[in-house]
From TrEMBL:
Enzyme class (EC, first level): isomerase
Record's keyword terms, sorted: Isomerase, Signal
Protein name: ribose-5-phosphate isomerase
Documented EC number(s): 5.3.1.6
Amino acid sequence: LIPSLGGITSTRAKPTFATMATQDELKKQVGYKAIDDYVTSGMKVGLGTGSTAAFAVERLGELMAAGTLTDIIAVPTSVRTKEQAESLGIPLTTLDEFSSLDVAIDGADEVDPQLNLVKGGGGALLREKMVEIVADKFIVIVDESKLCDALGPGFPIPVEITPFCHEHTKRVVEALPALAGKCKAVLRLGSSTNNQVDGDEPAVTDNGNYILDLNFDEPLTDAPAAAAQLKATCGVVDHGLFIGMTTAVIIAGSDGISVKEP
Ligand SMILES: O=C[C@H](O)[C@H](O)[C@H](O)COP(=O)(O)O
């Protein structure tokens, strides 16, 4: 069964009805392979968020129910992943109990040739980064539509900000040296789980924060600098640039599955 996608959509060109099943099948292939190849009994596992990560959670639940994997404990990266894991009987914990994990598995919105990522289209970037940064291995699972030459124009970069004086923070972010004149910051409205305008009120994350989506026309030339400047901005909680965190990317495409490492 294809798990609920939690209403996640993106500004990426939507697949046609004819190709949708195929894209979901690709997501399922990488989700299942990540669990099969990187999770063994006794591990502490970070569970990502989104339509691809949901297949990994599904597979983990399946193998635990079958007794193939035992003594697993997991940290979910969103309320909806927590609910899915609970529904499958996967034992859960938090980073308050364990500050390091064996592996984390998650999707991404964009992957560049250095395996730097844009994440947070589904609004879970803060919890994802907190969990994935403490994992010994961070395994990224994508279909080939997520690969890009450079981060920026293909998918807006999400930035989680405090609601307090958010219009001020938006101006400060747009004026950062690495971003000035290159992007337009748009306050996410409606549901935090997608970057479509599907409501009138600011979208609120699982952490009670707002999200700015940074829209670029041109590729981001220095993603590490942008990441550092965003992180150093008062009012920014975190951002969706995941730089130098990836252990491996499992990619499903029309030619089959491949694995890339930095
Ligand atoms: O906040 C959401 C996460 O970063 C997702 O991992 C990312 O948006 C990819 O989601 P999907 O697998 O649904 O494309």
